[in-house]
Design a protein that fits this description.
- The chain is mainly beta and about 110 residues long.
- Helices cover about 10% and strands about 40% of the residues.
- A 7-stranded mixed barrel has the order 2-3-7-6-5-4-8.
- β4 and β5 form a beta hairpin.
- About 25% of the residues are buried.
Amino acid sequence: VLPSETDGALEGQLWHVDRYGNCVLNIDPGMLSNAGVRVGETLEVVMSSGARRGIFGRTFSELEPSELGVGIDATGLLTLWMANDAVATRLNLKSNDSVTIRWEQK
């Protein structure tokens, strides 16, 4: 599934789960910044396990326990993560799952 953008949302899929349980997406991080999404902004992340609030651009150390982070990993890919937890296990996610990221339109 190729990532696509609609008004206030990006749709893509989970490419793979890394060894820490982080979920690497096929969505280009530039698509969020081009849409005007800024670091620290709250996003809605819709997955097979339901919808969760996520914070864009937060590092592990800035997240509260079980808070979802949406950020750019060391390889430059958009990734879902949690502080001290495997997001894939916690949210029952696996490769090829659909992911939609929504933000408030400005």
